[in-house]
Every structure is written in structure tokens, then in C-alpha cells.
Design goal:
Layout: H1 4-15, E1 24-33, H2 41-59, H3 61-67, H4 70-77, H5 90-111, H6 124-136, E2 137-142, E3 145-150, E4 172-176, E5 179-191, H7 195-202, E6 218-225, H8 230-243, E7 250-252, H9 260-270, E8 273-275, H10 284-288, E9 298-300, E10 305-307, E11 316-322, E12 325-331, H11 334-337, E13 355-358, H12 361-374, H13 377-383, H14 388-400, H15 410-433
Helix pairs in contact: 2-3, 2-5, 2-6, 5-6, 9-12, 14-15
Length: 455
């Protein structure tokens, strides 16, 4: 249901020929900060335990009074962690972390004791405490007693599973372009057709009041936790567009959304051409811009053979799996490569022959074609269309405050994003109908919007 309001708007816009399938669209993502504080591991442990005690004090005050030393724990966990400064000494901070750990395990034991009300362990705050302690602490029980230790960084669970806040259990730590944050990511898709393309594809006249190119409207909004990569969302975004019958013929994306597999898969499964740069050849020769990289070799897929720049052929062709993906490994005989006068320009191996690693034929040919296109000035000018999505993201952040979540949890945050997308579409429609420049919209335009569209 959270998508309903955007679905209704886009259906009305499709009926008026303002959005359509088969045109051009562009997509990009940006970070969203959760409505919680950033906490280090010490603060996270203390605040999680404090939040659990607060929940138990409300749900079962009489039981809590008999289970823990209320006065001592109230002094320790009464204030929120951001209201005081932790010790400056590393040893004292480590000792405080162990105190938190021992207290947390003691509270969990009390909650799960046979004489404790069974429903206490079902409280969300208790569930969060249990998960947080499993992720951050070790406990070893011996005849001498229980020993509690904090997990080392290498022993922490992967970021996609690791809780970042006791209050928003969907928020995660994210990293993009060297920037860390706690929260989510949003993927925004929007139309970017020109006027001629729109009229030719829909067969409809330009709506009254329109002037210049058609409005750039948001067609899809996807919200994920901060650890989900752009490439993981390429297919889901196309499924969302297909469900609205708004799949483009060309989809402009940055390299984070693309791979040879995705370029081929989107064309086969959705009929969509991804217009996107791909990662360049990462071989030592290609990075140095000197010597013979893979493109200097001729590949005969039918004969399963490669020919080097000097005309020698490979002696080994074998399917393989490299870093979890299918590949083809090609090798040249070391006796052929060893006396070669240009050996230093071809391989860094001191004794062996040259080795090539290729993707399966269909993927490799798509990758080679995409890399060749990227060097063409005409393709670069065409790809410049993608840059407009940055303006959409800027408007979303400046006008609707999309950079910061207002609510806790992924579902409510996504609902907020859907309503923000609808608001931006209405603002852009009003600006377009009233003859304002496409990318210079103001919130005040919304007040003059003709509400016949919504009706």
C-alpha cells in the first residue's frame, strides 16, 4: 500500500502522455541518515542496555526491582549515553565496555530464568539486547566462573547483519565514495525524454500549457538499508518499472549499477538497453598504459584459441571460476614466451608464459563493446543525459529533506520517500504547466497546482 499514491499519480500521468514506457530514464542513489544518533561500540552497548532497562521498567517494574540492583543500575544507566563523556583513558573505556557486557548477560539470564514471566523475553527491547550482545560479546563459562570479552573487529558480523542502533533495527552502517553514515540508501528513477521522442512514441499532442521539453518526472523510488550496493538494485528497479508498465528503452546509469551480466540480463529479461560506463581493463598493462593488454590479443572463440601480437597462439583454454564468477583462463606456452623480444611488455612473470582471463563469450563481447563505446565523444555527449538525475536528488534533499529520515524503520522511511517523490512530481508539473524553467522549481508553485489531475 505504501506505493499506492505514487501508482495512482503515474497512472494519471500515463493517461495524459506525460510518462510512458519505451522512452529514456535515469537512476541514481544517495545516502539517507537514520533518525538515530551515530554511536561507537561503547556507546552502542551502554545505550542498548539502558533502552532495555527502560522498557522493562515500564512493562514489569515490580519484577525488575527484584531482579537487579535498581539504585546502582539507575546511576549507571539512567542518563542517555550522549549526555556525558566517556573516560578518556583507553583502559577505562575497555573496562566500562566489560561492565556493560557483564550487566547485559546478567539481565538476559534474569529475563530467561524459570521464575521470570515468559512474555518478558518476547519484548522487542529484550530481543534487541540479545542480538546486540551476540554480535559484540563473547562469554565463556567455566568452573571458575563466567568470563566476558568484547569481540575483536575481525570477529564482528558482516555490516548487513550488524545492528547500529537499539531504536532502529533496520538502520545499517554504509560506505560510499569514502563517506560513512548510519541509515539507508534511496534509489530514484526519473524520465528524461525530449519533446520529439515523447510525441512520436505516444502519438499524443503536447498538453496545453506545456512549453519546451516534457517534465522530468520520478517513476520509481526504492529504499534499502545502507549496505545494499547499487548493482544489487539494478534488477529490482527494473521489476518496479515493469510493474507500472514504465520500462524504458534506454536506461542511463552510473558504473555502480552496471556489469556485463547486468547489461546482458536487462536486455534479455526486460528489453532495456543500459547506457552506462563499465569498469576498464584492470590488467597491469592497461593500468600502466604501456605494453600489451588483453585488447592486443585476437580471440577465436570457435577454435578456443588466442593469438598474441606477434602471431603466436595459446596452448591452454580452460573454463574456471575466479572469485565466484565464471571465467575462461588462456595460457601461452612458456617456451614460446621466454625468448620473445617483447616479453617485458607482455608479462611480469619471470619464468611462465602469458595468461589471459576472460568472461564467457557473450559477456566478454558486451564488455569489450561497452569499453570501446566509452572512448567515443558522441557516446559521452549522449551519456551526459544521466547527469540530470543529480538535480533531482538535490531537489529531493533541499525541498523534502530526503537526506534525513523522519521515522524509525525501513518501511516507514520508504513510505516517507514515496510521498516525497509524489510531492516533487507535483512541484515539477506545476512549474512545467506554468512555463517555469525545468530545473528551477519552488515549493510555492504547489499552491497553484490544478488539482484536476488528482481528481
Amino acid at each position: 500500500m505504501e506505493e499506492k499514491v505514487l501508482d495512482l499519480l503515474l497512472t494519471a500521468l500515463k493517461d495524459r502522455g506525460l510518462v510512458k514506457a519505451g522512452g529514456r530514464q535515469r537512476t541514481d542513489s544517495t545516502r539517507v541518515l537514520a533518525a538515530v544518533r551515530d554511536l561507537n561500540r561503547l556507546e552502542l552497548a551502554g545505550e542498548t542496555l539502558r533502552a532495555t532497562l527502560e522498557a522493562l521498567a515500564c512493562a514489569a517494574p515490580d519484577w525488575l526491582a527484584g531482579a537487579v540492583s535498581v539504585r546502582e543500575w539507575a546511576d549507571r544507566y539512567g542518563p542517555r549515553t550522549h549526555s556525558w563523556h566517556p573516560p578518556a583513558s583507553t583502559s577505562k573505556r575497555e573496562e566500562m565496555a566489560l561492565v556493560y557486557g557483564r550487566d547485559g548477560f546478567a539481565l538476559l539470564e534474569a529475563v530467561h530464568a524459570p521464575d521470570a514471566p515468559a512474555w518478558l523475553r518476547e519484548l522487542p527491547a529484550v530481543q534487541v539486547l540479545r542480538t546486540m550482545w551476540v554480535q559484540n560479546y563473547h562469554r565463556t563459562v567455566t568452573e571458575a566462573g563466567a568470563e566476558v570479552k568484547r569481540r575483536e573487529s575481525k570477529d564482528l558480523p558482516p555490516g548487513r547483519l550488524r545492528l547500529a542502533s537499539p531504536y532502529d533495527t533496520d538502520a545499517r552502517y554504509g560506505l560510499k565514495q569514502g563517506s560513512w553514515w548510519t541509515g539507508y540508501k534511496i534509489h530514484i528513477s526519473g524520465s528524461c525524454d525530449d519533446a520529439d521522442g515523447l510525441d512520436a512514441a505516444t502519438g499524443q499532442a503536447t498538453p496545453l500549457g506545456a512549453d519546451g521539453p516534457p517534465p522530468r518526472l520520478i517513476t520509481s523510488i526504492a529504499t534499502t538499508d545502507a549496505t545494499v550496493t547499487d548493482a544489487e538494485m539494478t534488477e529490482p528497479v527494473h521489476h518496479m518499472l515493469a510493474a507500472r508498465d514504465l520500462l524504458p528503452a534506454e536506461h542511463f546509469l552510473d558504473s555502480g549499477y552496471a556489469s556485463a551480466e547486468l547489461i546482458v540480463g536487462m536486455k534479455k529479461n526486460f528489453g532495456v538497453t543500459l547506457v552506462t560506463p563499465v569498469l576498464m581493463n584492470s590488467s597491469p598493462q592497461a593500468r600502466a598504459g604501456a605494453g600489451f593488454d588483453r585488447t592486443a590479443f585476437t580471440i577465436d572463440w570457435d577454435k578456443r584459441q588466442a593469438t598474441c601480437p606477434r602471431g603466436d597462439t595459446s596452448t591452454w583454454w580452460s573454463p574456471a571460476t575466479l572469485r565466484g564468477t565464471k571465467a575462461i583462463v588462456i595460457k601461452f606456452d612458456k617456451e614460446t614466451c621466454r625468448p620473445c623480444p617483447v616479453r617485458d611488455q607482455c608479462t611480469r612473470s619471470k619464468t611462465g608464459g602469458r595468461t589471459l582471463s576472460l568472461q564467457p563469450r557473450e559477456l566478454q563481447e558486451v564488455l569489450d563493446h561497452a569499453r570501446l563505446q566509452q572512448d567515443d565523444e558522441q557516446w559521452r555527449a549522449r551519456y551526459g543525459t544521466r547527469a540530470g538525475i543529480e538535480g533531482t536528488i538535490h531537489q529531493a534533499v533541499a525541498v523534502t529533506g530526503m537526506r534525513r529520515a523522519r521515522y524509525l524503520g525501513l518501511q516507514k522511511t520508504h513510505l516517507e520517500h514515496v510521498f516525497s517523490a509524489v510531492a516533487l512530481n507535483l512541484i515539477r508539473l506545476d512549474a512545467w504547466w506554468n512555463g517555469h524553467p525545468l530545473d528551477r522549481t519552488r515549493v510555492s508553485h504547489l499552491a497553484r497546482l490544478d488539482l484536476s489531475l488528482a481528481a
